[in-house]
Amino acid sequence: MAVVRRQQIVNAFLALICERGLESVSLDDVAAASGVQRSVIRHYMGNRAQLVHDAAATLIERYSELIRGAVGERPGAREIIRYLFSREWTADADFPDRAFDELFHEAARDPALRDRLRGAYDLLVELLAAGIRLDRPDLPPDAPAEQIAYQIVCLAEHNAAMQRLGFPPGQAAAAQALARRLAAGD
To answer: Keyword annotations for this protein (predicted)?
Structure first.
């Protein structure tokens, strides 16, 4: 029951963040959206900071499931890059992207949240680096896979932001081609 109630509260919080932005969502708002008293929020979640951290954990889990579901357990770099530059990844989705963006900005003021979000990106970089090593077992030591993966993740993340702004899909295709060249060492 506690796990279900906590998830209900976190989901309501995330929906409110998408609707209004993080700064304007109070615990009273979350209680009303969850259909519970504010004291129930305090009982299950503690304070607002804990609720923010649990919301981040939920989003990270959802993004991880999306990626793993799309590319499998031991993907090569090509599969990961294809997904990171796909319409599925870059589509203008209010949820969870808007909530993630709000939490990303909050991380500038919250070191623990910043560490949690960085950890999520570290996992993405590690997954891509493993794919690069799988595709390029002869990768020279002076070109570490993690460095290449980091560059590709930066390119993919900024491409997603640019696509949400309405830049032409051809630009995304060019960015994807560049990412593939980076991964291949061309």
So the answer is: DNA-binding, Transcription, Transcription regulation
Q: Please give the mean pLDDT across all residues of the chain.
A: 92
Residues 23 and 73 reside in one and the same domain: no
In terms of phi and psi (left: phi > 0; alpha: psi -120 to 50; beta: otherwise), the region of 35 is left
More confident residue, 151 or 65: 151
Q: What distance in Å separates the CA atoms of residue 143 and residue 145, rounded to the nearest whole number? A: 6
- Inter-residue contact 183 to 77 (CB < 8 Å): yes
Query: Burial of 183 by CB count in 10 Å (0-12 exposed, 13-18 middle, 19+ buried)?
Result: buried
Q: What is the 3-state secondary structure (H, E, C) of 87-141?
A: HHHHCCCCCCHHHHHHHHHHCCCCHHHHHHHHHHHHHHHHHHHHHHHHHCCCCCC
CATH number at residue 82: 1.10.357
| Domains: count for the chain | 2
pLDDT reading at 58 higher than 90 = yes
| pLDDT score recorded for residue 94 | 52
Q: In this predicted model, which residue has the larger pLDDT, 76 or 94?
A: 76
pLDDT in tens, 92-123: 455 577 898 999 999 999 999 999 999 999 99
Which structure tokens are listed for 19? Answer: 């609707």
